[in-house]
Amino acid sequence: MASALLLLTMLPSVPSAGGPTLEEVLAEHCRAREATHTLQAKFDQTKVFTLFEEEEASQGMVYFAQPGRICWQYSHPDQSSTVINERAGWSVFPDIKQVQKFALAGSQTNKVLSIVGFGPCGSPLTESFDITMSKGKKGAFVLGMKPTDEGITPYFSRVVITLDGSDYLPRKIELHEKSGDILIFRFSNLDRNVELDGAVFEYAVPEGYEVVEY
Predict the structure, then answer these.
(1) What b/e sequence results for 153-170 when a residue is b if at least 16 CB atoms lie within 10 Å of its CB, and e otherwise?
(2) What is the pLDDT of residue 17?
(3) The pTM is what?
């Protein structure tokens, strides 16, 4: 399951009860990203199918390393993994013994990574979204992001990112799809700048698996 996923021009100054402005929060967020060389966290994912009023839940671990490498390892309800490694990506599905490999243009990869809170920040973020800010629970900052980039607008009508007030990194991300469905990620047990096994980001076809290219 790929989170297909995943952009500072003039922004409205939005203070929150004497707290930091939107520009200040975005600057802290970008500094936090720049200082994050590696990251691992537990994630819970919920896909909301609005038409059918149904939800599909899954969970696992996400690993990130500069520059632009992400691995999503799903452990429940089914085992699978998706890796984005700069200009290429692949998904491994043990249940059907298949590897789905896909090519990604660099700019599109960066947009996907930025949506989910990783990758380039600053102007790449603000030039692709109109952003507003509100205060969330426990000192969190909630960024409401309306896509303006034509590479994103066909897929998402809105993105909502909740930043933790202590480290300015995402703890919840909502991707509102054009179809009306919503993909929600919640992050916990987030560890930054830890040593990661580089093999988690490398492409390898397990023995007996079929490779399908897109």
Answers:
(1) eebbeebbbbbbbeebbb
(2) 53
(3) 0.83
